[in-house]
């Protein structure tokens, strides 16, 4: 029996020891508060501004979240729901901002800072960061999509790209000239980004009356919804559809665009530097213009993406964290981050950061800013993940979309929101 | 150590000895039982409790007792049944194919006189490899941009450079099943090898002398004599295949209706924060697994006690 | 004639098995030598056009990945060690002693072996937060023990059943102390079984994914399978495939080493646990 007891004691000691070891490494502070910032993975921009914004009063350290935006949301929300105080600052993807704010995970931003942020940020960025009339996260970087095209292809096809183009036009042009229109249409959030922009471009909105919670008004079953479905149906059944359409995300779409058949691509700002080291010949061939119109003559509403920075309401250092956020989202910080990562600033002042002009042509920087002002953020509601999931279930694969899809998806999402269907 | 030896079972034991042995036995199993229960019992009870509520992690104020309505919602939902059907298809197809390939592997390994070490080593690599890695490897294999399947098998009429394996239901299911089969066939083969080594060579020789063909020997002599091994292998693998998760998570994330029951549960609990509905799904999943185990044990009359060496 | 046909058949089978088992492994190794440019642009050919060591350099300079590797080793080794101790105790009792509740223990082990891990992630998360085990080594070690104990107990009790325990008494009669008898006679006989259980447990802990991704949040305790969803390359929207493949190769190396060293024991352990009558 001694042997047994000794074994157990050793086992218990091992478990405790490994726990202590883990605990020790976390508590090496010297009295100066450490603000922990949970960031989405990037190539070092956020770590750099964290270092720059650390002061004598506090140090900002970064912890990386998973690569997938939905996984980021899961990690953060689970821990915030459990009242975790080890998260002070976090980088939040726009579609989940309202969910976090509504659940009380985000500390209120002081009025004066709210005012300052609203003044400096693009309209699209402010819209995406606002819930219940208040700015709940500080817009840090803002992403938008433009229409990228291959100059050689456009020349061959004889299309005038100086005027706004429609989806119909580019699909027809690509079909006729053996080109491909690359978009994001895998079963994931990026597909909903596309659908949202198509609907907004036709004057519609996926949901309104968001203050009513699950009883919000869905706008999928509408003329705008049908227009959007029409574009997707047309592309999916045309020769312009890439073979990997139903699994394509940003990277796959970028690869299609860089291939011999590449013609048109809707994608985020990073595309400009995407081919620098791997396919310099493609880089020289890239042209760009405003996101395509859903309905001819009606201004397009480009997608909005990016990151807003929020402070956890469970943080032990809310005041310090707010000061830190003010510094992290200053136009200069936004510029530093943009230079290192290609994630563009959320404010036009950020675009003045000198280094950016060396990387991007002036008219492209202007196009990004114009697009951000016209951008249509996804509906700001705590139930976005249900709506988005419902759209993904009913609109995927793209080849299955037809004129009845909007109606079906609307009733499906309605049932999901009321707990009558599984998503 | 002296007390340990005192617990050795005699043929006739005095009641004192029996009591001491009983106590020692309980003490020895206690740590293992505690560790097994700590992690499973409380979560199961909590899942049972939460399954009676409408409860979403991000809107805790709306928590409401709803009785069995979560179960009703799930059982009347087509998605639940579709995912159950998917899971059952994956289970049946993979186990059946693994049984055939695994048996062939076992035969070769049993017969082989050279390079035994090499073959055992290579067969253990898929067994030991991380499932996530296996899923990545096969995802790339079937990838339209980076895979070799489309170019190697372009001679087949329905495969071309543009074949998008993850773009449709059945090809995607096929890719998932290939990964699952590749990773777990070695396990099947090893269990069958053990069974094969128990079939007496004399009986096979006798059948041969009687003029039985190879096919007859296989069906009449070999297979019936390794029934126990086959049944145990099927039971283990079927239950394992029913819980398929990692492969789908990596390869399709459930797109093209390739979702499994485990994945559905994961999505509700972890991704949608639907603790109520998700818990109900957890309970149903566990009950299904139990039912499945019971069915296999009853239908095939697998004697687990005997198989494990329990008299 | 028949003999040569058999020999050819065995040879063909042998080669088929080798290809089946190793092709995907070779493929992932080949991928790990493909550069970012090659995978981003699409490279359907099997071997890299322009082999590069860049992915390996990136991985070995990635502090987070090295942390994850350290966590994986630490957690898997401790879980294996403890699980085998507990399983040995329990298996000895089951194989050698008569006590009430034996069947109950066995049924429990069987039920847990079948347990769908996904269904307890949620509650376990809450429980671990309460006990401050979230994102710690013990937070993964404990559930890994839970899920490896059934198989370990199973394998070990089958092994112990085969041990001729009378030899121990015989040695004592010959004048050895009970400790000597235990060490010289029983330990050598039981060791292979313990060893097998240890390897199987290690494989499980090394491979586990669902718990690893749900119960950790920083590189303090995140293991390699979970760390793989944290890679980021020049394209912010897609994981860098070459690095994923490289990480896959790196984590497979220990498995291959273990298999190379101990294949005989693993095969013996896997087969004896399940079918001995």
From TrEMBL, chain A:
One Pfam family in the UniProt entry: SBP_bac_1
Chloroplast found in the keyword field: no
Signal peptide: 1-28
NADP listed as a keyword: no
Lineage top rank: taxon: Bacteria
Keywords: Signal, Transport
Family statement drawn from the similarity comment of this UniProt entry: Belongs to the bacterial solute-binding protein 1 family.
Annotated PANTHER family: MALTOSE-BINDING PERIPLASMIC PROTEIN, MALTOSE_MALTODEXTRIN-BINDING PERIPLASMIC PROTEIN
Protein name: ABC transporter substrate-binding protein
Naturally occurring in which organism (per UniProt): Nocardioides conyzicola
UniProtKB/TrEMBL annotation, chain B:
Alphabetized UniProt keyword annotations: Cell membrane, Membrane, Transmembrane, Transmembrane helix, Transport
Gene3D superfamilies: MetI-like
Entries under InterPro entries matching the protein: MetI-like, MetI-like_sf
Domain ABC transmembrane type-1: 84-296
Domain of life: Bacteria
TM region positions: 28-53, 88-109, 121-140, 172-197, 273-297
Family: Belongs to the binding-protein-dependent transport system permease family.
Protein name: Sugar ABC transporter permease
TrEMBL record, chain C:
The UniProt record lists the keyword Lipoprotein: no
Entry membrane topology: Multi-pass membrane protein
Domain ABC transmembrane type-1: 69-262
Transmembrane segments: 7-29, 73-92, 104-125, 137-160, 185-206, 241-262
Primary location group: membrane
Subcellular localization(s) per the UniProt record: Cell membrane
Alphabetical UniProt keywords: Cell membrane, Membrane, Transmembrane, Transmembrane helix, Transport
InterPro entries to which the protein is assigned, alphabetical: BP-dep_ABC_trans_perm, MetI-like, MetI-like_sf
The UniProt record lists the keyword Zinc: no
Signal peptide (UniProt feature, chain positions): none
Family statement: Belongs to the binding-protein-dependent transport system permease family.
PANTHER family associated with the record: INNER MEMBRANE ABC TRANSPORTER PERMEASE PROTEIN YCJP (PTHR32243:SF18), MALTOSE TRANSPORT SYSTEM PERMEASE-RELATED (PTHR32243)
The protein's name in its UniProt record: Carbohydrate ABC transporter permease
Organism: Nocardioides conyzicola
């Amino acid at each position: 029996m001694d042997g047994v007891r000794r074994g157990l004691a050793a086992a218990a000691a091992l478990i405790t020891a490994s726990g202590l070891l883990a605990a020790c490494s976390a508590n090496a502070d010297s009295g100066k508060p450490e603000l922990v910032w949970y960031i989405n993975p990037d190539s070092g921009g956020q770590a750099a501004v964290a270092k720059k914004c650390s002061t004598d009063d506090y140090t900002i350290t970064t912890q990386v979240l998973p690569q997938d935006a939905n996984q980021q949301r899961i990690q953060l929300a689970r821990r915030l729901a459990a009242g975790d105080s080890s998260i002070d600052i976090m980088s939040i993807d726009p579609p989940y901002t309202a969910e976090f704010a509504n659940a009380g995970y985000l500390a209120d931003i002081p009025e004066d800072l709210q005012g300052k942020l609203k003044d400096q940020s693009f309209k699209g960025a402010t819209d995406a960061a606002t819930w219940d009339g208040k700015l709940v996260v500080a817009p840090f970087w803002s992403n938008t999509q433009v229409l990228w095209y291959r100059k050689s292809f456009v020349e061959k096809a004889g299309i005038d790209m100086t005027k706004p183009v429609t989806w119909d036009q580019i699909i027809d042009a690509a079909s006729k000239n053996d080109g491909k229109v690359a978009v994001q249409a895998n079963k994931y959030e990026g597909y909903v980004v596309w659908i949202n922009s198509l609907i907004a471009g036709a004057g519609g909105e996926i949901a309104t009356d968001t203050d009513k919670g699950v009883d919000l008004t869905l706008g999928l079953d509408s003329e705008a919804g049908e227009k959007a479905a029409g574009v997707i149906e047309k592309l999916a059944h045309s020769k312009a559809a890439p073979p990997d359409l139903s699994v394509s995300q940003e990277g796959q779409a970028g690869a299609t665009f860089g291939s011999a058949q590449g013609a048109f691509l809707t994608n985020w700002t990073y595309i400009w530097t995407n081919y620098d080291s791997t396919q310099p010949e493609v880089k020289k061939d890239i042209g760009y213009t405003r996101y395509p119109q859903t309905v001819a003559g009606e201004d397009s509403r480009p997608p909005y993406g990016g990151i807003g920075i929020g402070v956890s309401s469970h943080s032990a250092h809310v005041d310090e964290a707010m000061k830190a956020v003010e510094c992290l989202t200053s136009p200069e910080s936004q510029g530093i981050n943009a230079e290192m990562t290609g994630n563009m600033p959320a404010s036009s002042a950020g675009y003045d950061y000198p280094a950016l002009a060396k990387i991007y042509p002036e008219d492209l920087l202007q196009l990004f800013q114009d697009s951000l002002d016209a951008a249509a953020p996804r509906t700001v509601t705590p139930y976005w993940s249900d709506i988005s999931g419902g759209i993904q279930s009913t609109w995927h694969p793209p080849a299955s979309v037809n004129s009845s899809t909007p109606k079906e998806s609307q009733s499906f999402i309605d049932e999901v929101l009321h707990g009558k269907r599984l998503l | 150590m002296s007390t340990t030896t005192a617990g050795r079972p005699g043929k006739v034991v005095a009641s004192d000895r029996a009591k001491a042995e009983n106590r020692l036995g309980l003490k020895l199993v206690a740590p293992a039982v505690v560790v097994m229960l700590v992690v499973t019992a409380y979560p199961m009870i909590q899942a049972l409790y939460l399954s009676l509520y409408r409860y979403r992690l991000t809107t805790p104020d709306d928590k409401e007792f709803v009785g069995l309505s979560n179960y009703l919602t799930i059982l009347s939902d087509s998605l639940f049944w579709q995912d159950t059907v998917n899971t059952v298809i994956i289970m049946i197809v993979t186990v059946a194919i693994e049984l055939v390939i695994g048996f062939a592997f076992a035969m070769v390994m049993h017969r082989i006189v050279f390079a035994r070490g090499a073959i055992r080593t290579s067969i253990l690599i898929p067994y030991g490899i991380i499932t996530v890695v296996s899923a990545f490897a096969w995802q790339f294999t079937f990838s339209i941009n980076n895979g070799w399947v489309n170019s190697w098998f372009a001679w087949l009429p329905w495969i071309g450079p543009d074949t998008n394996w993850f773009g449709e239901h059945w090809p995607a299911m096929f890719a998932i099943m290939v990964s699952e089969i590749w990773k777990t066939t070695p396990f099947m083969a090893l269990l069958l090898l053990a069974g094969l080594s128990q079939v007496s060579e004399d009986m096979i020789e006798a059948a041969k002398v009687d003029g039985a063909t190879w096919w007859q020997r296989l069906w009449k002599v070999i297979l019936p004599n390794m029934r126990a091994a086959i049944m145990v292998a099927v039971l283990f693998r079927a239950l394992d295949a029913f819980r398929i998760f990692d492969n789908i998570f990596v390869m399709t994330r459930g797109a093209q209706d390739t979702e499994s029951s485990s994945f559905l549960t994961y999505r509700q609990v972890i991704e949608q924060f639907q603790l109520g509905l998700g818990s109900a799904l957890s309970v149903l999943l566990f009950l299904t697994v139990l039912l499945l185990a019971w069915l296999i044990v009853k239908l095939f009359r697998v004697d687990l006690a005997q198989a494990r060496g329990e008299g | 004639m028949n003999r040569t046909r058999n020999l050819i058949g065995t040879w063909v089978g042998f080669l088929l098995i080798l290809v089946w088992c190793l092709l995907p492994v070779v493929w992932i190794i080949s991928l790990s030598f493909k550069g970012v440019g090659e995978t981003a642009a699409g490279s359907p050919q099997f071997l890299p056009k322009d082999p590069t060591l860049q992915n390996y350099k990136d991985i070995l300079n990635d502090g987070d990945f090295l942390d994850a590797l350290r966590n994986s080793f630490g957690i898997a080794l401790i879980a294996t060690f403890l699980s085998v101790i507990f399983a040995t105790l329990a298996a000895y009792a089951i194989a050698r002693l008569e006590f009430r509740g034996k069947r109950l223990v066995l049924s429990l082990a069987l039920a847990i072996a079948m347990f769908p891990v996904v269904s307890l992630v949620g509650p376990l998360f809450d429980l671990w937060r309460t006990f401050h085990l979230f994102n710690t080594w013990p937070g993964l070690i404990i559930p890994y023990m839970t899920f490896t104990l059934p198989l370990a107990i199973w394998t070990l009790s089958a092994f112990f059943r085969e041990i001729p325990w009378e030899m121990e008494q015989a040695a004592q009669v010959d004048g050895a102390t009970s400790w000597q008898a235990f060490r010289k006679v029983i330990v050598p006989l039981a060791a292979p079984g313990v060893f097998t259980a240890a390897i199987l447990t290690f494989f499980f802990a090394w491979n586990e994914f669902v718990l690893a991704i749900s119960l950790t949040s920083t590189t303090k305790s995140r293991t390699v399978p979970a760390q793989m969803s944290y890679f980021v390359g020049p394209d912010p929207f897609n994981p860098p495939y070459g690095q994923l493949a490289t990480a896959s190769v790196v984590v497979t190396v220990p498995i291959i080493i273990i298999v190379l060293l101990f294949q005989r024991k693993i095969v013996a352990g896997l087969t004896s646990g399940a079918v001995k009558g």
